[in-house]
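Q: I have two molecules that I believe assemble together. Could you output structure tokens for the complex as a whole instead of separate predictions?
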Amino acid sequence: MEEPIRLETPLTDEDVEPLRIGQKVLLNGVIYTGRDAAHKRLAERIQKDLPLPFDLNGQVIYYVGPTPPKPGRPIGSAGPTTSYRMDPYAPLLLERGLKGMIGKGKRGKDVIEALRRYKAVYFGATGGAGALLARSIVHSEIVAYEDLGPEAIRRLIVRDFPVTVINDVLGQDLYEAGVRRYRRESPG
Amino acid sequence: MREIHIQEVTQVVKRLFIKANTCLGEDVQTALRKAMEKESSPTAREVLQEILDNARIARDEEVPMCQDTGLAVVFVEMGQDLRVVGGSLYKAIQEGVRQGYQEGYLRKSACHPFTRANTGDNTPAVIHLELVEGDRLKIIAVPKGGGSENMSGLKMLTPAVGKEGVMDYVVERVREAGPNPCPPIVVGVGIGGTFEKAAILAKRALLRPLGSPHPDPELAAMEDVLLERINRLGIGPQGYGGNTTALSVHVEMMPCHIASLPVAVNIQCHAARHQGAVL
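A: Yes, here they are, computed for all two components at once.
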């Protein structure tokens, strides 16, 4: 297997441009959590030209709604949620400087096009491996929308958080490439 | 007449939901290990190993294997010679869910359909109560994740499409779902009955242990064909490509109306969680 690439957030154009689908990446530094309801609020604020709870420039958003932490733990189980529900909001955030998203599942063509235009990547984390992934999260604090419970925006500090590049700056898609390679159906 | 107190029901429901969320069944782990042996993609093998490691961490540290600890579904089979005392059986089950999700540090994922306001305690649970012979109470706790539930489907087919049409629908559902429901998946198929019965048959089918084919040879053969066709799709673990898209396909069938051919496909992620107890 190819050696994983270690990256430190916030990400730059130089960090994301060489990344290609299927590559393993270990993320380090600060990332933010956000899912359905938080995205709706972020998009509303952008449309009204209001300040956001954190600077999007170079940032990575992780689509996750963790379980409550057990006493003494920074976070509970914390795997990715399905990403397509964030598709209506993602291009707007990418336009504002977002460099990476972590989730699972297919993205729409508008998102894939926005990744190419604004030079950003979509990473996949292993869905359903929330206990394993939580081990790479060393700190968690709520920075906005506490009323949303599991959907609040959290600032996480991660150490060697394992992800795979699903959509790169060239507009490639690991899901399509993977299926093409392993499909064994007769055509027609 | 045998009696059972609602407090016992609450305690059992609480315990079952915590256990289901932290302990992945041996049958699922065995299926994952077998899949690893047969899988030709190195990336896929790596993902399967991560899933097995995750199950071990969840069990050892008593943390949920997945952050989506599900909407609470409860199957109850109540013996007709049993009397529940001390209050309402339904309320006792809801209380067990409330306590389990609070005390087990499980995520509360129930919300209002439009405002999306969280109910705060993961109730109401979806309860399927069935009256059976005997004097026992069987409770099965099924935390059902949203990602895989969203990829499920139901169709009222034209009877003329027959068995082939049913199988095509199932395979197409899985193809369209692609990476979204966290493959490798378990596929529950309900055929026949009515609109709602087909859906319940499909969900029930998910509760059968992996590696135990349907006792009816015709349906067992259909399960084999469906599994083979689904694993030829190439979606693979997490959708990164591979030979393991599904671990198992379970079919349940019953007679339907002369005008109908209902088919329901309930998709279950690899965190195929359910725990039962007989009181």
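A: One point stands out. The longest helix of chain A spans residues 36-47.
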